[in-house]
Predict the structure of Orotate phosphoribosyltransferase.
Amino acid sequence: MEQYKQEFIEFMVDSDVLKFGEFTLKSGRKSPFFMNAGAYVTGAQLRRLGQYYAKAIHDHYGLDFDVLFGPAYKGIPLSVATTIAFSELYGKEIRYCSNRKEVKDHGDTGILLGSKLKDGDKVVIIEDVTTSGKSIEETFPIIKAQADVEIQGLMVSLNRMEVGKGGQKSALEEIQELYGFKANAIVTMREVVEYLYGREYRGRVVIDDAIKAAIDAYYEQYGVK
């Protein structure tokens, strides 16, 4: 596993973004783990988060794109932090763009924040996590309505590796098939478990036998076969 992935897993734990216990998801599923990107709240955290996203996007999509699109609301700080990281790490100036939930009719009018989209732009979409693909379902037509752009792919922080709406494939696989662009994550839940299970980190074992058993049972029911 790449060094930045190991660091990112520890970073999620340190930031209290990735938690283990019992959580009810928006889908109604009872999950033994939960990821909340809203817990990244400090300047130092957002700087590091942007760097991890930039490294993963660079790994999967290279530097040949123009715009990072972060869907409202959580995607807005993600797109800003990651464009800054691209400038710092790779000397590449990427524009950021996000959508508003409501169209603004005065001043800086329209549905977009940040850069406008132009014909021919190559776009990477950036999100926190995708469980069902509903966000992309809303975001895709907004992007395509603004200009004739080419969507290179989607990058999320964690691939939960559970079945999407179709009940057979993961949400990221469903997105790839439905929209025709790649969908990737900084880390997968399999990598998280592989790295943390039985490992003492900051004086405690984050994933012990009981939590591992709960995760295994969850994937028996909801995991991608």
User: Anything to note?
Assistant: The helical segments are 3-14, 43-61, 75-90, 134-146, 171-179, 189-196, 209-222. The first strand starts at residue 18 and ends at 24.
